[in-house]
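Entry for the shared binder. Reason: the reviewer on the internal report wants the predicted structure included alongside the sequence.
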Amino acid sequence: MKHLFTVVLCCLFATSTFTLKAQNSTYDLVIYGGTSGGVAAAIQMSRMGKSVILIEPSNHLGGLTTGGLGATDIGNKDVIGGISREFYQNIMEYYKDPSTWNYEDRSAYLSRPDQTRSNDGEDAMWTFEPSVAMKIYHEMLAAEDVTLVIGKRLNRQSGVNSQNNKIISITMESGETYSGKMFMDATYEGDLMAASEVSYTTGREANSQYGETLNGVQANKYNLTLKGNVSRNAIHHNFVPGVDPYIIKGDPSSGLLPFIIEGGPGIDGTADKGIQAYCYRMTLTNHPENRILFEKPDNYNELEYELLFRNYEAANGPIEEMYHYGDPLVPWINTPMPNKKTDTNNQKGFSTDFIGQNFDYPEASYAEREAFAQRQLEYQQGLMWSLAYHPRIPKKVRDVVSKWGMTKDEFKDRNGWTPQLYVREARRMVSDYVITQADCEGLVPQVEDGVGMGSYGMDSHMVQRYVDHNGYVQNEGNFEARGLTAYPIPYRSIVPKKGEKENLFVPVCISATHVAFGSARMEPVFMVLGQSAATAASLAIDQGVAVQDLEYSLLREVLLRDKQILNYKK
């Protein structure tokens, strides 16, 4: 039967949408969201001997893990256990086969000085091609009894049927209804959570709300964290001094260039609805046989890249030295992946992040989100064409970028562009425990209900672009506070507060502030939390209790049995 599932899955996944029909109409666990957290949860629920359905609203399974984020942001690798670590171990096993190396030798890749996330001394490999991640997820799901539904979106207005504070069923826009004993929202947006009327928030909290220093507006260049470490805010990923913001240089009456807000950024540390910028993680290659040259989009608007041109033109001295901290001259982080591919991310003042354009995304309709995703795509396509070919870009930059392009053998139906928008944050649940900056820094008493660990440094991409008091353009919202070891993520932060839905888990849009979510929001952690949530769902069914009332000692015992890491000491 599992072999049949594998064949059907692979064949059907080539189409735009598919549904594998279930034998039973009610499931022990209904998971909405086929992100990495949702996939791990489905696998775990099957291993617990329970029925499970995994519903992905888009046509793309695996979220960012299969969507181009192959340079895994981890922090402390020692705290990644369970199914999450199993996935990365499977990645390593895959790449041990010499036949999987089409464009370079494995040993040459692992020995590269700019390849720091994986080496032969580990039991797992943390960098990979998107198509390989998809293959591994398919294989792991095919080994389990999981019903998979692709391309079915929740009716967010009336699709949640609840009785006595429990979700009974959810209905899709296309009319399908899925019933269950337990439910899970594993989306990046938190749509099921919101439709279930669970408490949540968006944007940035004021520093005063939870006693933080890195929350709210962050325009100051330096900020002391509670530990006394200096967080350099708004320095990385900003403009060189003296970039004029007006359509006609020096003429405010001509209007602001695109993507600059009117007025100042706000008072430091105060709350707003700002959200760190999104982008598409790009899988690039410089191998001629596998490269698609960057193309100029049909609706290319040169004015949208005027700030990019001016940022280079405003530089004093050699362009290699125009940025702080020794950054290279091209505005990207071009991390090498196997087979001469990359995971390419935002860097510097004007790059792939579409700064200030996504504030409405969390609450937007499906149509509005699709329009934004298309707008982001066109912006990024225009950016890459400009960097490679526009005459106002320095020749040294063009010479580098024009050697790269999208890959022919990734995301073939989209000309090499991933369908997965990098939703860095959207809604965040507000539960009985809200993870804060103090949790990440180890400045609160150890929680006693840990279900996984975070360890990545607290950071945020830029949020908005404004005109400073000198009349020049600046970005605001970035902070980077490194040096964390590991901290526990409590069970209370992945379930609604007591008195709200009694059979819902939220392992992705967890209960955390903007600051803390900036540390916890990593794909390996989402897998860890998805597995822990599924374990708790199974135990809550067996015990006949609300998720908020599950006895933690029972949960802890099973989590440790399944190789989850709940504590860490150097």
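Summary line for the report: The mean pLDDT is 91.
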